[in-house]
Amino acid sequence: MTKIQTVTDEISREVFQVLPLSDLMGAEIIGLDLSQPLDDRTRDQVHDAFLKYQVIVFRDQKLTKQQQVTFTEQFGPLERHTLRNLGTNDIPLVHVVTNMDDDGKLLGRVRSEKWHTDKSFRPEPSMATILHAVTLPPAGGDTVFANMYAGYEALPESTKAELADVKVVHSWELSRENIGRVMSEQEKRDAPDNAHPLVRTHPETGRKALFMGMHASHLEGMPMEDGRARIEALEEHATQERFIFRHNWREGDVLMWDNRCLLHHADGNFDTTKYPRVLHRTCLRGTATR
Q: The pTM is what?
């Protein structure tokens, strides 16, 4: 595992550390207060760490919703949420991720337990998600990541060649049907299907990654059943334990991850009938895929 990197901003003299959390991906950033604006150099160094490690966690933060929006905007324009996932009226760009209903009653489960990448059904899928821990169970409630760079790179060369020009249709409507919810016509118009390369070239690193998850409906030019079987087989391959990183939440964590090269899901590994799990989510808009 790479040793701790200490970064000093020569302008502000702000010092922070980057501590890798595994050999595969993930790093902890220590020493930054995200409630305060980052100067340009510090922001660029954080962005570099984000590209290098794909998942970065900032410890011991306490952000209001507006402060989270302000922090997120330093890395680009925010992505709006779907109609069902809008935040509060005053700050709609912060989606409250919770295992409670609108009346504060525990649902007995967590949402988003299937592998996915956020907003993959958009024409410009999300660049990044920022998730801030507000209320946590005593243990568990982890967020689990699968590295799609590593999943792709481990494929046989013959399979890589077969997938080179394949496009996959991402459908918010189908992914909601998979969890037993029928979308309204307004929701369908707000989030129509979009096709993207199944093997996506990351716009900043140039590396190739599989681009799928629960929003992936079918493969263009292939019968639905055959395409879905191919997607499921690739997901089974790419979510093997050797490609996995598990984030164990701590109070005050702010997690930032790269949706362009990762799948993730929430783990309901705690008593969901007893403990609330509440996190605030913002998303950064991405670019068209290629």
A: 0.90
